[in-house]
């Protein structure tokens, strides 16, 4: 019996950790996929030559192309364009000519000559090499470039032509994505749904189009959920997430977003509740009947939490609580469910109830830590510090972590001296993180107004230029302007990235030291030396508004 | 018989009142909504004018007419005729004539109104005087006062129509009353005029300079003057030896003629200008006044006036003597087809625009084919404000970076880079396009500072490019407007 309990406990801990990890991974994945993958895939499809075609090039052609590609990769667009042009002049009949012409056009786009790129570049590829694969890519680029210029009508026309002419090409999927974007702008729901559907269910998922199709399936599911089409949404997500565990994560994320949107408007509150019910009942159908297998148990946890999240999003606390109780009943008491249950109470500002549940956790250290965190959240600092200090003794694995938390709590309470005392204790005991503790001591001294001591502490830190900036800040607060300027000068002279910031700080310091003429000179120096930097803008505006000086000596050009 | 006459006069008066009311309603409709069909308005205006003219003529022939009544009817006749003329000119499309008629007519109205005001003032002061005399007479009889004391006025009155009000003094009170009356009347008249102009009444016109030209990048031609070679007739048997110089030593006499190859403008007219422009038209630089920030940054002499002057030098287009400013509400008073092709907007603070103003701006950009030229005068905050403002005005249009080879960056000057004084809102010019035409050009880096006298201390290369860019934007707005006017004309035909 005892063996089973320990086993269960281990499973519970592992499942909790796994669940957290999966959730985090999914969120990161969504953002990453949404923002980066599509563009990377797009880039790889659109501006690289296939190996087969590369093989067909002659040695001289390859040599010239490699030079051009090298500059292209270095984003030296002007030289790259010249090299592609050279390729075209030398090897006009080559199979790589269309590719060189297309890349030349992309270089023109990067050089902000978008009209030239369309008329003299992409269009030429279509006209002179209509059978080459670059013609299809160029057709897409014409639409894309028009869109980048804000010319929506020609962009739309180009994309629609692509969809008709090359329905099977991989690039057409990108055209469809851009058309969806335009349709969103024009509130054209019909086009949106048609294209999402096509990308989700009809477009073959190759290595090039997978990202685009997966994204479309998520967007389509999100749209369907907003319009209460739960089963259709699940079908759409199934195309991307055949594995139930990932499907549930994605389904819940999208459902919660849709419910939040519906609940925000008084008119659609009922629809929101309806959606949460429908989504919850769908999740219930996925609940495993046998939870003796560890994987199934983990999945069951995920499903119950998903149901609770759905009810919580539709702002029905009684149903959420009922779900947690049901989960405890079905899966037995375990820390994972109790933690989530307590967390939900915290989100409802029922701190006492949350603490009561935390106190019952089998993992006592975790339970006590959560109690301390909740006390800190409620500004009950002495009680929180007491618990953290107890934890530092009880938890032999992480005593420094809990001491650090105690010090942080003291800092929250503006109790600077006890915080410093703890950090000094840590400095003495935890030699592996000396820099960190020194930095924390310095910050606490600075916040506590012990500026001279803070300067001394920062001086011992090794994180240049941050420590110098802090020291200079302390000197400014002490009205020791010359010392501050000296430090800022050292920062400006050593670190190029920090130079504009340091220079403008010098100007502000001179202003504080009642040296307006020198301050003006320093501000003008920022404008003159770093005309393209954001601090030049700040200095320019400051000179105009504060000193009524129009001659700021800036000025630059963006080519 | 007497009763019949009184009855018919009453009926007649009622009918006149009805005609007056209908006419007033037609005027209100024309001023405010313009919802009635033109033919109904025409009937009312023509009928009203004819009726009052007829009435005035009939009254003057009548034996027992009073001069006051006759003048009153003449005044009504004047107003109805004036309105009819202004309206007709406007409907026919003679905008300029309509404006001139409106101006002259307003002057006439002022004079007629002044005459009536003087008449009323005199009438009232005489009544006060007679009342005073009657009062004094009765009190004299009672107290047996001397005649000198009788005429002496009381200095207690406050009434402005009473000539003996204390503030008119003892010396020439009539003159002072008249002057005060004139001033008050003028003030009230101006106030009414201002109110009317705010209620969509008075229209302002923007007229482009007439002419034509080509919308192309400035190109320079270099012509080589032909040098006629001197021919020498040489006698081979001559005693004089003629040495032919080696070719390297020949000095060519070349004269370079450099000039612009074409006239900057749009259309087939003569001289630099725009098709659809007017002879007295000029390019104006109108700045938009808005609440929330400093709209008047770099305004007027030594600042944006420099840009206008440079535009004149570079394009030979006629320009206004001064730069101007208008509120967003005032943009509404420009009619479709005669509104400013471009208005300039700058600042570094917040932009606070109401929903009504947003509507006016949307109408200006879409229906009146206008364009906003926005310059970030000093903060990233202003950049965000511009983006938010444009999102409200044109929710379906996204800003896009304007390429360097766009028409606006090519004509009349080829701009190879975007010049800026300070990168307040990034380093790229943004544009909002509707049907391919830029309706808003946003410069992120204080271009107006480079136009100022001291050019913000930037290098000559930058401020010259800033002037060129300014010229390009103004020219783009005007040529696009001219194109639109031409296409409107063609559509109408």
Number of strands of chain A: 1
Question: What is the CATH T-level topology of the largest domain in chain B?
Answer: Rossmann fold
- The count of DSSP E runs of length 2 or more, i.e. the number of strands of chain B, is 12
How are the strands ordered across the major sheet of chain B? 6-5-7-8-12-11-9
CATH architecture of the largest domain in chain B: 3-Layer(aba) Sandwich
Helix/strand order of chain A: HHHHHHHHHHHHHHHHHHHHHHHHHHHHHE
Approximately how much helix is present in the residues of chain A?
A: over 70%
Query: Gap between N and C termini of chain A, in Å?
Result: 76 Å
Q: Which secondary-structure class do the elements of chain A indicate?
A: mainly alpha
Radius of gyration of chain A (CA) equals 31 Å
The end-to-end distance of chain B, rounded to whole angstroms, is 61 Å
Provide the β-strand percentage band of chain A.
under 5%
What does the radius of gyration of chain B come to?
34 Å
Quaternary assembly: heterodimer
Helix and strand content put the structural class of chain B at: alpha/beta
Count of separate DSSP helical elements of chain A: 29
Helix and strand element order of chain B: HHHHHHEEEEEHEHEHEHEHEEEHH
Task: Give start-end ranges of low-pLDDT stretches of chain B.
Answer: none
Looking at the structure, what is the overall shape of chain A? flat
Largest interface: A-B, 39 and 45 residues
**β-strand amount of chain B:** 5-15%
How does this structure look, described?
The complex is a heterodimer of chains A (559) and B (493). Chain A has helices at 2-46, 51-56, 59-73, 77-90, 97-110, 114-128, 133-148, 152-165, 170-185, 189-202, 210-226, 230-238, 244-264, 269-286, 294-313, 317-331, 335-347, 351-359, 364-377, 381-394, 399-412, 416-429, 434-447, 451-460, 466-477, 481-494, 499-512, 516-529, 534-547; one strand at residues 556-558. Among the domains of chain A are: 1-37 and 200-331, no CATH class; 47-166, Serine Threonine Protein Phosphatase 5, Tetratricopeptide repeat, CATH 1.25.40; 332-413, Serine Threonine Protein Phosphatase 5, Tetratricopeptide repeat (Alpha Horseshoe). Chain A is built from 29 helices and 1 strand. In chain A, helix 9 packs antiparallel against helix 10 and helix 26 packs antiparallel against helix 27 (499-512). Chain A has 559 residues and is mostly helical. By secondary structure, chain B is an alpha/beta fold. Chain B folds into 2 domains: 2-198, no CATH class; 277-492, 3-Layer(aba) Sandwich (Rossmann fold). Chain B has helices spanning 2-32, 38-61, 67-92, 95-143, 147-151, 173-198, 304-315, 328-331, 355-366, 380-393, 407-410, 447-451, 460-492, and strands at residues 212-213, 220-224, 256-260, 267-268, 286-289, 324-327, 343-347, 372-376, 400-401, 418-420, 430-434, 437-443. Chain B has a 7-stranded mixed β-sheet with strand order 6-5-7-8-12-11-9. Chain B has a two-stranded antiparallel ribbon with strand order 1-4. A two-stranded antiparallel ribbon of chain B has the order 2-3. In chain B, helix 7 (304-315) links the parallel strand 5 (286-289) and strand 6. In chain B, helix 2 (38-61) runs antiparallel to helix 3 and helix 7 crosses helix 13 (460-492). Chain B is elongated and about 135 Å long. Chain B starts with a helix and ends with a helix. The model of chain B has no long low-confidence stretch (mean pLDDT 84). The chains are: A mainly alpha (559), B alpha/beta (493). Chain A binds chain B through residues 111-116, 148-154, 185-187, 524, 527, 531-534, 536-537, 539-541, 544-545, 550-559, and chain B through 348, 378-380, 396-406, 416-424, 427-428, 431-433, 435-436, 445-446, 449-450, 452, 454, 456-459, 461-463, 465. Strand 1 (556-558) of chain A pairs antiparallel with strand 10 (418-420) of chain B, so a sheet runs across the interface.
């Amino acid at each position: 019996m005892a063996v089973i309990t320990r086993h269960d406990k281990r499973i519970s801990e592992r499942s909790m950790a796994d669940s957290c990890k999966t959730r985090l991974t999914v969120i990161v994945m969504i953002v990453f996929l949404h923002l980066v993958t599509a563009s990377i895939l797009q880039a790889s499809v659109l501006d690289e030559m296939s190996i087969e075609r590369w093989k067909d090039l002659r040695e001289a052609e390859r040599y010239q192309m490699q030079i051009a590609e090298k500059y292209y990769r270095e984003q030296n667009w002007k030289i790259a364009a010249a090299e592609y042009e050279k390729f075209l002049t030398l090897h006009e009949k080559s199979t790589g000519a269309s590719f060189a012409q297309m890349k030349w056009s992309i270089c023109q786009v990067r050089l902000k000559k978008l009209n030239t790129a369309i008329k003299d570049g992409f269009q030429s590829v279509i006209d002179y090499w209509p059978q080459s694969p670059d013609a299809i890519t160029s057709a897409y680029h014409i639409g894309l470039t028009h869109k980048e210029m804000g010319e929506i009508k020609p962009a739309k026309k180009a994309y629609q032509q692509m969809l008709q002419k090359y329905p099977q090409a991989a690039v057409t999927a990108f055209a469809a994505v851009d058309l969806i974007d335009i349709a969103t702008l024009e509130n054209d729901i019909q086009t949106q749904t048609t294209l999402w559907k096509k990308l989700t269910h009809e477009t073959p998922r190759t290595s090039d189009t997978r990202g685009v199709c997966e994204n479309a399936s998520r967007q389509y599911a999100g749209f369907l959920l907003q319009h209460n089409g739960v089963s259709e949404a699940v079908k759409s997500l199934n195309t991307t997430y055949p594995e139930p565990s990932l499907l549930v994560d994605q389904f819940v994320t999208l459902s919660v977003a849709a419910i939040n949107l519906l609940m925000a408007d008084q008119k659609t509150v009922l629809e929101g509740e309806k959606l949460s019910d429908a989504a919850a009942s769908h999740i219930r159908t996925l609940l495993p009947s046998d939870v003796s297998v560890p994987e199934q148990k983990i999945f069951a946890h995920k499903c119950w939490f998903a149901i609770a999240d759905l009810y919580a999003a539709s702002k029905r606390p009684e149903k959420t609580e009922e779900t947690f109780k049901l989960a405890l009943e079905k899966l037995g008491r375990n820390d994972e469910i109790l933690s989530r249950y307590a967390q939900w109470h915290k989100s409802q500002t029922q701190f006492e109830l949350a603490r009561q549940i935390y106190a019952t956790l089998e993992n006592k250290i975790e339970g006590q830590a959560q109690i301390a965190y909740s006390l800190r959240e409620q500004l009950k600092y002495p009680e929180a510090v007491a618990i953290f200090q107890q934890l530092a003794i009880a938890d032999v694995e992480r005593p420094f972590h809990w001491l650090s938390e105690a010090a942080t709590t003291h800092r929250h309470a503006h109790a600077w001296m006890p915080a410093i005392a703890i950090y000094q204790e840590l400095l003495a005991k935890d030699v592996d993180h000396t820099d960190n503790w020194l930095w924390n001591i310095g910050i606490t001294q600075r916040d506590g107004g012990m500026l001279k001591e803070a300067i001394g502490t920062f001086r011992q830190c090794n994180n240049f230029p941050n420590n110098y900036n802090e020291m200079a800040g302390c000197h400014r607060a002490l009205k020791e302007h010359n010392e501050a300027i000296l430090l800022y000068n050292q920062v400006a002279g050593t670190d190029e990235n920090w130079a504009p910031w340091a220079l403008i700080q010098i100007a502000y310091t001179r202003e504080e030291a009642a040296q307006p003429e020198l301050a003006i000179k320093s501000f003008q120096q920022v404008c003159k030396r770093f005309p393209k930097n954001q601090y030049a803008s700040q200095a320019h505006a400051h000179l105009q508004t504060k000193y009524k000086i129009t001659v700021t000596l800036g000025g630059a050009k963006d080519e | 018989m007497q009763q019949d006459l009184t009855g018919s006069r009453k009926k007649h008066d009622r009918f006149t009142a009805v005609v007056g009311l209908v006419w007033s309603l037609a005027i209100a409709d024309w001023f405010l909504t313009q919802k009635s069909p033109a033919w109904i308005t025409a009937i009312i205006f023509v009928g009203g004018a004819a009726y009052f003219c007829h009435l005035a003529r009939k009254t003057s022939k009548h034996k027992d007419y009073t001069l006051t009544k006759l003048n009153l009817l003449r005044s009504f006749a004047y107003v109805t005729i004036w309105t009819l003329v202004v309206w007709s000119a406007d409907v026919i499309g003679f905008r300029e004539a309509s404006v001139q008629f409106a101006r002259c007519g307003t002057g006439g109205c002022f004079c007629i109104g002044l005459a009536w005001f003087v008449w009323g003032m005199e009438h009232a002061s005489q009544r006060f005087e007679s009342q005073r005399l009657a009062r004094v007479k009765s009190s004299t009889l009672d107290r047996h006062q001397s005649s000198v004391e009788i005429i002496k006025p009381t200095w207690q009155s406050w009434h402005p129509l009473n000539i003996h009000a204390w503030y008119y003094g003892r010396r020439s009170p009539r003159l002072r009353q008249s002057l005060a009356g004139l001033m008050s009347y003028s003030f009230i008249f101006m106030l009414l005029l201002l109110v009317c102009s705010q209620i969509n009444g008075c229209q302002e016109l923007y007229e482009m300079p007439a002419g034509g030209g080509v919308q192309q990048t400035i190109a320079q031609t270099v012509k080589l003057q032909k040098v006629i070679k001197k021919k020498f007739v040489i006698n081979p048997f001559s005693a004089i030896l003629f040495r032919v110089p080696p070719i390297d030593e020949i000095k060519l006499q070349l004269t370079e003629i450099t000039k612009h190859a074409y006239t900057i403008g749009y259309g087939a007219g003569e001289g630099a200008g725009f098709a659809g422009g007017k002879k007295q038209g000029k390019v104006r630089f109108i700045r938009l006044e808005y609440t929330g920030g400093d709209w008047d940054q770099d305004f007027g002499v030594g600042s944006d006036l420099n840009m206008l002057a440079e535009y004149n030098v570079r394009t030979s287009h006629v320009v206004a003597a001064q730069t101007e400013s208008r509120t967003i509400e005032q943009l509404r008073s420009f009619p479709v087809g005669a509104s400013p092709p471009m208005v300039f907007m700058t600042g570094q603070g917040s932009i606070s625009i109401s929903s009504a103003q947003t509507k006016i701006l949307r109408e200006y950009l879409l229906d009146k084919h206008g364009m906003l030229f926005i310059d970030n005068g000093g903060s990233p905050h202003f950049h965000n404000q511009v983006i938010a403002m444009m999102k409200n005005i044109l929710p379906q249009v996204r800003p896009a970076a304007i390429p360097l080879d766009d028409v606006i960056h090519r004509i009349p000057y080829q701009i190879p880079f975007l010049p800026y004084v300070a990168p307040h809102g990034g380093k790229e010019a943004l544009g909002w396009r509707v049907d391919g035409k830029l309706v808003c050009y946003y410069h992120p880096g204080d271009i107006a500072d480079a136009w100022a006298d001291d050019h913000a201390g930037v290098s000559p290369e930058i401020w010259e490019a800033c002037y060129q860019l300014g010229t390009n934007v103004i020219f783009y707005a005007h040529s696009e407007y001219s194109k639109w006017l031409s296409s409107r004309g063609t559509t109408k035909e």
